[in-house]
Design a protein that fits this description.
Layout (H helix, E strand, L loop, with lengths): L1 E7 L8 E7 L15 E8 L2 E9 L9 E6 L4 E6 L19 E9 L9 E12 L1
Antiparallel strand pairs: 1-8, 2-7, 3-6, 3-8, 4-5, 4-7
């Protein structure tokens, strides 16, 4: 099980965030082809709030990886996130949608710049993550 704990506070120009990135290969030489997959399934529980799940792609060079939001509750739940729901935020260069160059995944708690909702302590537990 993966357990992420932290606290989000004001003071970062791009909005506070904390989380974890899992890369298949630190040199980005091993990529996964998820073209045949329909989505990602996350079994999670934690501080009730929205979390960001992003797919790290080799084609994205400016950190604007496609991401989707998951709503976590206190109870264990299996969250299904369709690949079609992953979108770039838009601060970087737009990259055509493709899933043949996946280099990892990122899970994080985020707060938009200037927002107050979502600040404070959080805990996120992940029991499993899989493509389906």
């Amino acid at each position: 099980m993966l357990r992420i704990t932290g606290a989000l506070a004001e003071g970062f120009a791009y909005g506070p965030f904390a989380g974890v990135t899992v890369q298949w290969d630190p040199q980005d030489k091993q990529l996964a082809d998820a073209t045949a997959m329909k989505g990602i399934v996350v079994r999670a529980r934690g501080t009730p709030r929205s979390y960001s799940l992003s797919i790290q792609r080799a084609a994205v060079l400016d950190y604007d990886h496609p991401r989707a939001t998951i709503a976590v509750t206190d109870d264990w739940q299996e969250l299904r996130v369709p690949l079609a729901s992953f979108k770039q935020i838009g601060f970087g260069k737009a990259v055509p949608v493709a899933w043949n160059d996946v280099k990892g995944l990122e899970l994080s708690a985020r707060v938009s710049p200037g927002a107050k909702t979502g600040l404070g302590d959080f805990e996120l537990e992940i029991d499993s993550i899989r493509f389906e």
